[in-house]
Amino acid sequence: MENFSQWYHNILEEASIIDSRYPIKGMSVWLPKGFKLRKHIIEPLKKLLDKDHEEVLFPLLVPEDELAKEGIHVKGFEDEVYWVTHGGQKELNKKLAIRPTSETAMYPMFSLWVRSHIDLPMKFYQVVNTFRYETKHTRPLIRVREITTFKEAHTVHATKEGADEQVKEAIKIYKEFFDTLAIPYLLSKRPIWDKFPGADYTMAFDTLMPDGKTLQIGTVHNLGQTFAKTFDITYETAESTHDYVYQTCYGLSDRVIASVIGIHGDEKGLRLPPQIAPNQVTIIPIIFKKGGEEVLNKCEEIKSSLESSNIRTSMDNRDIRPGKKFYEWELNGSPIRIELGPRDLENNKAVIVRRDNLEKIEIDLESDYVSKIEEIFQEISENMKNQVWEKMNDSIISTESLNNVNELIKDEKVVSFTWCGDEECGKVIEEITEIDILGTQSEDSDYCKDIDGSKCVHCGKEGKYTALMAKTY
Amino acid sequence: MENFSQWYHNILEEASIIDSRYPIKGMSVWLPKGFKLRKHIIEPLKKLLDKDHEEVLFPLLVPEDELAKEGIHVKGFEDEVYWVTHGGQKELNKKLAIRPTSETAMYPMFSLWVRSHIDLPMKFYQVVNTFRYETKHTRPLIRVREITTFKEAHTVHATKEGADEQVKEAIKIYKEFFDTLAIPYLLSKRPIWDKFPGADYTMAFDTLMPDGKTLQIGTVHNLGQTFAKTFDITYETAESTHDYVYQTCYGLSDRVIASVIGIHGDEKGLRLPPQIAPNQVTIIPIIFKKGGEEVLNKCEEIKSSLESSNIRTSMDNRDIRPGKKFYEWELNGSPIRIELGPRDLENNKAVIVRRDNLEKIEIDLESDYVSKIEEIFQEISENMKNQVWEKMNDSIISTESLNNVNELIKDEKVVSFTWCGDEECGKVIEEITEIDILGTQSEDSDYCKDIDGSKCVHCGKEGKYTALMAKTY
């Protein structure tokens, strides 16, 4: 996309997603249409988590001493935390942090809740706002000071294996969620200098935005026993001994919504996969002076049929030109538009226009058109998914030398390379290329090269990993 | 109730609603069960509002200068606002308030959004957390520092009549909502010294808690043009002139949830109206060694039938004594329990136990028992509603003299009296009785006496209003 940044800014405004004129930098208002989109994106995630997680809600504020307990963790956030120092006119005895994330709010309570091995595992999640005092240039939904849609899950396990298994399980849940959104992803193990502060290791999902930069859209952290030791979360084992628990946490944010908007959108506006579109079908009656009422009635009838099959349907019978309606609904990303005029009615037909590829399909209104539309939903989802995955996969290129990396990256590429895995060497690679290492690939990754005999691109030592690098948001 | 305060504290803990051991006073954690109850209480309200309001989401933080703009308003909140003064290690150039309510966050944006009379009316709502630095004794869900469930609606109108009409409409919506919860209410126009800071007038819903104190559970404010003038919210009229808009706002909080818990609960625990109960039906198989599987199968079958009619059903097949299960589900307030043992199965019967009155009803499993259960839901709702309304109405007593007010109030009463309506006189009445005037009754109120010829209880001047007074939370 020629000027993604400008396009992105415009679409948020034109499709009435958010209003970023709020008088604090990096904080925006969710407008009604944006709020609905947000809701329909959160819903399938909640459904996935509700299977075996419990939803809770923790306070926004964290006492200074709790936040400070886990040294490595607080160091990772100390430049970004907003501090509440006054209540009314009075200075507080103890400063309160606005949560940048909720480990330090939750884990003192976990310490009270966890008693015995039979309580475990525990799996919780919450959807809340969190805050980071960003000093870099902010960008709506991508780099913000109020993250309005932070979905964070926290789990507690009796064994290391339990936590390891949960990391896999969380990855599976996120993959399923991203598939619902038709968002392609790269899964990496973050380099040690880029893991979550306090975690043993971090698995991260990145997607590729149209400007060639990758966007982190989800992370899964294996916390080991670090926080358990800090917050004294112990349990009684079956043998009546006491041990520290093992923990994981995993999160997603507004960035997921940014990726849906950015990756699927085109010059006409949003394109939304049917499962998350607030309006799945939009019916537009084409009305002339004569026979207008019959057309409207038929449109109402179609609307009722679709709604009784739980298809979210709007009918746009405003008194404006159909062309203006087409324009608006394409902008809003409604996956299917149905047009029905007097001649269509005579023939008992209607015209479906797919938003994903603008294809027109005639449907017979005497047939089971509801099932037909459900089929088309499937096709749209598949088509959108294939398109974006293909595009991303085409953008991954392998290199054996650092010399041409900046040239490769210019063409909106993610670069895969062999790495020895040493921290020192990795940091040098990032420094000389000024490009970030996303992380290392596991052997079952699509992006993992056969590294037998390959040498590290920088030091020439024996290659240990296939790693990915990219310009990042 | 003998010791309501103790009972309330216990039930929150025993029914796992919230955990108030969070290390900041007045801020609590919603536990999974409590979170579900909260969700099912919010849902019917959202449904009512979604008919013609749009859901939005505004930032949590408000710049100091916006908060300070409306002088009367800020004065009402200045002792209660939490202030964010630092981002990371740096002091912020401009202090940020954590919203105590969102007028000053929203109205600068409304000023950008409202252009022409054709944009009006606009009706928005959001469900968010808000903060008050309470210095009084806090009490979970009732007097808190983080209000976690603040539903605030804000509307904008072209005319005074539009705003007046919306106040009536909001009252209608809240009445319908409270009816769904089977919560009785007193509707009053708050005395002028107790209205929302910045409003023309405030209509308030109070309910009577078991300890005889009233609890404000909802307010509707007619803001007139005060905020419009402060935040410069104008529109172009049909005649191309410009005028300030008229506004209303109305809100509810966690206190609604407190009232459901407090008013319906009994010595066995929660009692929940079916419409908002997370578990509407709980099936408890009574299993002996022989025939256990058949009983379980039948229970599963009943569960499926109920769920296919969208009845939220749990089956408790834990390996513990039935008595313990009965105890727990009564504590959790599940409206209907179904018990099924081998002998019941033989006779193709089951026993229903109603939580509201503990009545046992035998049902024939060959009949349309799903409809029967839906009927019982209706009866439970009606019964609960009648019970609590009757109790509240029996607690309202009329007096013609202030002398015996404190005596009357001791017996858990709300006192109705004739008042001249003068502010000075009203404040004296509050001072000498140490009891709050809730407000005045409109003529169509159930609690409005015929005041023809009645004299003000304090000054003896001609009576103008029937007013209510009570000890309040």
TrEMBL record, chains A, B:
Record InterPro entries: aa-tRNA-synt_IIb, aa-tRNA-synth_II, aa-tRNA-synth_II/BPL/LPL, Anticodon-bd, Anticodon-bd_dom_sf, Pro-tRNA-ligase_IIa, Pro-tRNA-ligase_IIa_arc-type, Pro-tRNA_ligase_II_C
Coiled-coil stretches noted in the UniProt entry, renumbered to this chain: none
Record's keyword terms, sorted: Aminoacyl-tRNA synthetase, ATP-binding, Cytoplasm, Ligase, Nucleotide-binding, Protein biosynthesis
Stretches assigned to the Aminoacyl-transfer RNA synthetases class-II family profile domain: 32-273
The enzyme's E.C. designation: 6.1.1.15
Record's GO cellular component terms: aminoacyl-tRNA synthetase multienzyme complex; cytoplasm
Intracellular or extracellular location(s): Cytoplasm
Function of the protein: Catalyzes the attachment of proline to tRNA(Pro) in a two-step reaction: proline is first activated by ATP to form Pro-AMP and then transferred to the acceptor end of tRNA(Pro).
Stated name of the protein: Proline--tRNA ligase
Annotated organism of origin: Methanobrevibacter arboriphilus JCM 13429 = DSM 1125
Phylogenetic placement of the source organism: Archaea, Methanobacteriati, Methanobacteriota, Methanomada group, Methanobacteria
